[in-house]
């Protein structure tokens, strides 16, 4: 999608700190990290949000979680723990309408929100 921020990051049209890429997903540091490790894992295919997911996205969705686990290990938080969050729609505060899995880690998260 030409005017989508994360599509532009995936295509290297705007700079980002990419940490992982394969045929299905790309992952990069959040520009405003909320925790010592805060990485976004996104499908290479444009999907506006979790509400658009269908069984046809199963492989992509699995790839996002498998990538998240590998990234957690690479960033030293696999044992200490991490939080995976997807925001969907206005009440969640979703700001970018390209599906993304937040990976938060590197500190004890006392609340339930990330
Ligand atoms: P959400 O509220 O779930 O839609 O989260 C969007 C996230 O994208 C926020 O945590 C932002 O800090 C992050 N973000 C916005 N612009 C960029 C960017 N250019 N590169 C990396 N992360 C970004
Ligand atoms: Zn997009």
Q: How are the elements arranged and paired?
A:
Elements lengths: L4 H6 L7 E4 L3 E5 L7 E7 L14 H17 L7 E4 L15 E5 L9
Antiparallel strand pairs: 1-2, 2-3, 3-5, 4-5
The structure holds adenosine monophosphate (AMP) and zinc ion (ZN).
Adenosine monophosphate (AMP) binds next to loops.
Q: Would you write up a description of this structure?
A:
- The protein contains two helices and five strands.
- It is of the alpha+beta class.
- The chain has a five-stranded antiparallel beta sheet, covered by helices on one side.
- A hairpin with a 7-residue loop joins β2 and β3 (37-43).
- The protein binds adenosine monophosphate (AMP) and zinc ion.
- Residues 1, 4, 6-7, 46, 98 line the site of zinc ion.
Q: State the major sheet.
A: 5 strands, antiparallel
Count of all domains: 1
The assigned CATH architecture is 2-Layer Sandwich
In terms of DSSP E residues, the strand content is 15-25%
- How would you describe the shape? globular
* Uncertain parts: none
Return the average pLDDT rounded to an integer.
96
Per CATH, what is the topology? HIT family, subunit A
Bound molecules: adenosine monophosphate, zinc ion
Question: Mind telling me the C-alpha Rg?
Answer: 13 Å
Helix- and strand-based class? Answer: alpha+beta
Question: What spatial order of strands do you see in the largest sheet?
Answer: 1-2-3-5-4
Task: Supply database-style keywords.
alpha+beta, 114 residues, 2 helices, 20% helix
Summarize the model shown.
By secondary structure, the chain is of the alpha+beta class. Helix content is 20%, strand content 22%.
């Amino acid at each position: 999608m030409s005017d989508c921020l994360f599509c532009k990051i995936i295509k290297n049209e705007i700079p980002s700190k990419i940490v992982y890429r394969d045929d299905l997903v790309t992952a990069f540091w959040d520009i405003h990290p909320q925790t010592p490790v805060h990485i976004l894992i996104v499908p290479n295919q444009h999907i506006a949000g979790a509400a658009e997911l269908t069984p046809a996205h199963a492989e992509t969705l699995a790839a996002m979680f498998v990538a998240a686990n590998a990234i957690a290990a690479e960033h030293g938080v696999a044992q200490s723990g991490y939080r995976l969050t997807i925001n969907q729609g206005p009440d969640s505060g979703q700001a970018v309408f390209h599906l993304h899995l937040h990976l938060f880690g590197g500190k004890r998260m006392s609340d339930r929100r990330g």
